[in-house]
Amino acid sequence: MTSSQSAQLRLEITAMPNWLRRPIAKASELSTVQRIIKQRQIHTICEEGRCPNRGECYAQKTATFLLMGPICTRSCAFCQVDKGHAPMPIDPEEPQKVAEAVKLLELSYVVLTSVARDDLSDGGAGHFVKTMETIRRLNSDTQIEVLTPDFWGGAGAGKEGQRQRIAMIVKALPVCFNHNVETVRRLTGPVRRGAKYDRSLLVLAIVKEINPTIPTKSGLMLGHGETVEEVIETMRDLRAVGCDRLTIGQYMRPSLDHLPVQKYWTPEEFDRLGSLAWEMGFSHVRSGPLVRSSYHAGEEG
Q1: What is the DSSP code string of 153-181?
Q2: pTM of the predicted protein model
Q3: Strands 82-83 and 176-178, how do they pair?
Q4: Fewer beta carbons within 10 Å, N or C terminal of the chain?
Q5: What SS3 state is found at 50?
């Protein structure tokens, strides 16, 4: 990093509003999880994405595991997850390792997510299912939510391939099926490279078509230059495809290589958007600067 880049990064950190600064989690809560996942060479999005809430979630017996390695085949301009080079081969032992970690950590609620794996014939859907089945064999009382990619790319891409992949996971009966639209329609191109706004809405619609009883969920990151009207339009689009649950949080730039923050939305603005979401009929809403996709997920089951 050059001196000018260091100065710019320090300036951005200094300019961050107070409501985005939170106490560091207890070292014991972080180190226990970090030790167990490191020993098993598995990954959590909590660590890979440097989530500000990870200590709180660990203390509440909740964690989000990142399946199929830490390298993504997409190149979204906001995301901390590694990208830009060949993804790792699938570890056939990963489902067992994750299930053992769930047991050791006594997790009551688990979120399974993954990088996009457009290099795989099924986009990784089968690996999601295998991991769910293995967790349940060792942890019969643990609830499992999934946070999936759009399952569009790679071999077998297209609407029918996407539907087949989603159907595999729906058949495994997660307690919630989450897929994030991340941003408003106008900004999807520059923010979510390789993704499409309507394609993401279709993921949620397909879940409801296959099994209307499974709650669906999506999330928005604010701070890319969206307007209030665009956020409201996005919420309406989500409700139109039967989306039940919504998270709204603040985008925070992971590094100077990522998109800059255009606006820090205030806690009061998040509260107003949350109230509107409840009025629209979402059954669960989390709206606040530090809210992330899996924040307090276990309270929704």
Answers
A1: SSTT-SHHHHHHHHHHHHHT--SEEE---
A2: 0.87
A3: unpaired
A4: N
A5: coil
